[in-house]
Amino acid sequence: MGECTSKSTNEASKEKKRISNFKYYHSLRGKSAYRRYRQSEKGRRIMNILNQRWRKNNPLTYRKSHEKWRAQLIKEVFEHYGGVPPKCICCGETIFEFLTIDHLKGGGTKHRKELKRNGDHFYLWLRQNNFPLGFQVLCYNCNCGRARTLNKTCPHKLNRSES
Ligand SMILES: [Zn+2]
Ligand SMILES: [Zn+2]
């Protein structure tokens, strides 16, 4: 009987501790301490290891959550440069799969190479840099069509009847 009581006291104190921990981690002080910890070198290293372990153990959940994150990132970038819903600045195409982010001064490929990463990192770079000026939404047709004319104007904008 005595054992039983001590066990339940133990459980109760554990529960009490759990609640006070929960309160602390959800308080402003706790949150900012956690943020500081995550930004510290040690914290980052440990978070990295924990993240990697979690990804390895939950590949499906990871992929799903990564895809959700990625879709949100791309949505934000395209809506910033192309409006809601995003559309091609030249022809008004709104089918999302046809759209791309165009580097106004050209050199998009070069820029992507400079980032030495694939498209996702380009989108991430745009968001991390507060959506810098100099980019616009174009559809692939307008983007490629423009590249193939002499004065780099989309064929949509050329007066065909005169030529
Ligand atoms: Zn277009
Ligand atoms: Zn066009």
Cα end-to-end separation: 100 Å
Specify the overall morphology: elongated
What share of the residues does DSSP label as strand, in percent?
A: 5-15%
Q: Describe the sheet with the most strands.
A: 2 strands, antiparallel
Average pLDDT metric: 87
Number of discrete domains: 2
Strand order of the largest sheet: 1-2
* Unreliable residue runs: none
The rounded Rg comes to: 26 Å
Count of alpha/pi helices: 7
Order of helices and strands: HHHHEHHEH
Structural class: mainly alpha
Distinct small molecules bound, one entry per kind: zinc ion
Oligomeric state of the chains present here:
single chain
Structure report:
- By secondary structure, the chain is mostly helical.
- It folds into two domains: 46 residues; 111 residues, no CATH class.
- It has seven helices and two strands; from the N terminus they run ααααβααβα.
- The longest helix has 25 residues.
- The termini are far apart.
- The mean pLDDT is 87.
Would you summarize the structure shown here?
The chain has helices at residues 2-26, 28-39, 41-57, 59-82, 108-115, 119-128, 140-147; strands spanning 99-103, 135-139. It has 163 residues and is mainly alpha-helical. Helix 1 packs across helix 2, helix 3 (41-57) packs across helix 4 (59-82) and helix 4 crosses helix 6 (119-128).
